[in-house]
Amino acid sequence: MALIVQKYGGTSVGDVDRIKNVAARIKASRDEGHQLVVVVSARAGVTNELIARAKALNPRPDTREMDMLLAVGEQETIALTAMALHALDVPAVSYTGAQAGIFTDLAHTKAKIKNIVPTALRKDLKAGKVIIVAGFQGLNEQGQITTLGRGGSDLTAIAMAAALQADKCEIYTDVDGVYTADPRQVKDARKLEEISYDEMLELASQGSKVMQSRSVEFAKKYGVVFEVRSSFNHNPGTIVKEEVAYMEKVVVRGVAVDKDQAKVVISNLPDKPGTAAAVLRALADANINVDMIVQNVGHHGVASLTFTVPKEDAHQAVKILPATFRKVGGGEVAAYDNIAKLSVVGVGMRTHAGVAAQMFEALAEKGVNIELITTSEIKITLAIARDRADDAQRAVHAAFGLGKPA
Amino acid sequence: MALIVQKYGGTSVGDVDRIKNVAARIKASRDEGHQLVVVVSARAGVTNELIARAKALNPRPDTREMDMLLAVGEQETIALTAMALHALDVPAVSYTGAQAGIFTDLAHTKAKIKNIVPTALRKDLKAGKVIIVAGFQGLNEQGQITTLGRGGSDLTAIAMAAALQADKCEIYTDVDGVYTADPRQVKDARKLEEISYDEMLELASQGSKVMQSRSVEFAKKYGVVFEVRSSFNHNPGTIVKEEVAYMEKVVVRGVAVDKDQAKVVISNLPDKPGTAAAVLRALADANINVDMIVQNVGHHGVASLTFTVPKEDAHQAVKILPATFRKVGGGEVAAYDNIAKLSVVGVGMRTHAGVAAQMFEALAEKGVNIELITTSEIKITLAIARDRADDAQRAVHAAFGLGKPA
Fold first, then answer.
1. In this complex, do B87 and A57 lie within 8 Å of one another by their Cβ atoms?
2. Exposed e or buried b for every residue in A128-141, given b needs 16+ CB within 10 A?
3. Which of A151, A12, A140, A133 is closest to A74 using CA atoms?
4. What are the residues facing B372 on neighbouring strands?
5. B52 and chain A in contact, CB less than 8 A
6. pLDDT single digits (tens) B184-232
7. CA of A133, closest CA in chain B: separation in Å?
8. Which of B112, B147, B174 is the last residue of a domain?
9. Which among A16, A58, A80 is the nearest to B83, CB-wise?
10. Structural domain contains residue A367
11. Which of residues 120-149 of A touch B (CB under 8 A)?
12. Same domain, B266 and B382
């Protein structure tokens, strides 16, 4: 008998029929003899409806009231899920975040979990009940309801698995697991049986948006092994864990593409200290996330700066920067919003040379031009033209032999 | 500066625009210098939607889970109302039933308030904040969310007014107050400025369904004076309080009509002890509420029994009774679903004779036949043909001079 924490996302519990489906899956796990703690999200769409109503009343709603409001989404789902289980003769009891003993800091709408005191929950678990916990929410030391921000329900599940020292943690979502590349673009993309936390983090931040980084980081910190799998079929998913020895042998684990990028080129900047900093500060103040920064050292007293931004921020960057140019005494800006980022990720890169060379060769063969390059210990990212991204992904996927069975 | 408890029902907070309207009213009261504790219901329709989802998953949902589910309706409204107040620069803070210190017994879906410990609430009140409290919900001693059943938000407001020793309690609803008769039927029906708890109770149970009886009973028990008024206009409402001396002078305070009634006539019952009891037990077991019972003593060994039931229960009564007749050795049943109940109510009746005579004369003049009669200390109720109910109401209203200014 194992203690399993399961998490079902908003799409998985999106309506009455899907809640029935989830209840049937929970019952099946229980019939195998397991103890179950199940974390559920709000029904898909509910959170957005609540936010729309809030914004209609107040364009900048108070964060404490926002948490009071948003917490109802999950509270509805836990009750409905428990009722669906009762209809299958499975004893089940719902827990709000507060009742489950999930204590957070004071930061409303983006609270961090401080500790979990699952005393009541353990008692019900011992009594043979399935525990249904509201994801995304907790209680702060002032007795106020808090929410954990984006990806909060995943975090609830992983933190609960850590607190209960669960034997397994299963994150059910609308994808099958983590693939070597986007299966819609790369025919022979393969689902990974296992992946390390670090690889998962790099893939997630690059468009394989299976999970928010913070949940993976939390799992890594507390050593929670979890499996990402689909609630719509019974395929095995991808197990995410600390790297193990054999992982080193595989150099590249996966390819990720993010097509919603733009390149911003700033030229004719005065080549003096603090100019680049002023530009980046202006962008940060406008909440524009800058990535892949390349600065060219100056010629003839002028310098240039190139970086990528999310496509939707490119226009805003072009609009705000001239004010900075006036302050620093010069500069021009141009944006190109037809950019994609292509990354290869693998912990094996740490000990293998030549990955970049192999990647560049594969792209050169296809005539794909590389505009920007950044590298980390376990990742190489290239900015390329968006219309070549699918071709490039396939070429790189093939070059590293990712499509072949492991 | 007065401490005022206000309550806004589901229609008053039915959508974003109505919540804005409520916020403006709250602001206006506060601008007059008052301290405010505001109880709100779930948006109209929300509770029914939640119940529908629950029933789709489980025809007999667990009551503890039902409370977990239904409590979200009010939790949404308190947050939205607080946000709407913030948009008007009014400091406001929302409280769930649990946070407001509303402690109940263990009876899920129909909990009774045991006590209120508004410690946190008082602090915020003192700090100048408007307090928005979720109606209809509380917390039991096991830390579980409970709900108070039908009319629960009115009860929250009245109990909160008692606990805080509020100076005023205003129940905002979609009617203007309590009238001497139904204004849609009786042109010169007059809104009552004041009414006693007992009169309110008798009128409420007879179709003037402004409030559930339990809230009025609670107010009577704790001496909470409250005003029933509309959230859609600024007319003064009706103040409900313990009877005062001058009330005695007015014999009849109001007329009420309930048209959704049926008459059930049982004849040829064996005239022996326990027969009527067996009939009434069978009806009670089928959850059929029987009223205005008249038993005729037997002739020739048979007796008859006549009573009224809500119209929708008449068919069920006819269906189940033959089984009882077989057990007791005889009986026949017939139902007439074209019945209305007409009542006159007034605490002055206690000390005035002749009210019944005056009522009967008014009806005789209009040729209205009286089928059944019941009386209490402060009420006389007659069963009459439904198609004569409006005429009869007007005649009685006129006979007691209710249309004239007091």
1. yes
2. ebbbbbbbbbbbbe
3. A133
4. B383
5. no
6. 889 899 999 999 999 998 887 666 667 888 899 999 999 999 999 999 9
7. 12
8. B174
9. A58
10. yes
11. 120, 143, 145
12. yes
Q: φ and ψ at B387, to 5 degrees? A: -70, -5
- Give domain status of residue B93, yes or no: yes
Say if the Cβ atoms of A79 and B68 lie within 8 Å.
yes
Task: Check B120 against A143: CB less than 8 A apart.
Answer: yes
10 Å CB burial of residue B33 (0-12, 13-18, 19+) is exposed
B145 neighbourhood in chain A, CB within 8 Å: 96
Q: Is A77 touching B (CB cutoff 8 A)?
A: no
Same domain, B163 and B275: no
| Cβ separation B143–A79 shorter than 8 A | no
Amino acid in the structure at residue A134: A
Which structure tokens are listed for A88?
């299958």
Residue B234 lies in a domain: no
Q: Which of B261, B258, B257, B222 is nearest to B240 (CA)?
A: B222
Contact A82 B66 (CB under 8 A): no
CB B314 within 8 A of CB B335: yes
CATH of the domain at B117: 3.40.1160.10
Q: Does B40 touch chain A (CB under 8 A)?
A: no
- Residues A290, A144, single domain; the answer is no
Helix B152-163 vs helix B213-222: crossing angle, to nearest 10: 10
Where does the pLDDT of residue A123 fall: very low under 50, low under 70, confident under 90, or very high at 90 and above? very high
By residue range, what is the domain housing residue A308? 255-399
Which chain B residues are Cβ-neighbours of A146 within 8 angstroms? none
Domain boundary among B143, B174, B205: B174
Which residues of B fall within a CB distance of 8 Å from A84? 57-58
pTM of the model: 0.85
- Residue B277 sits in a domain whose CATH number is 3.30.2130.10
Q: Is residue B32 part of a domain?
A: yes
Domain count, chain B: 2
Residues of A in contact with B146 (CB under 8 A): none
ipTM of predicted assembly, 2 dp: 0.84
Calculate the average pLDDT of chain A: 92
Instruction: List pLDDT tens digits, range B337-362.
Output: 899 999 999 988 877 778 888 999 99
A379-385 and A372-376 beta bridge pairing:
antiparallel
Separation in Å, CA of A36 to nearest CA in chain B: 18
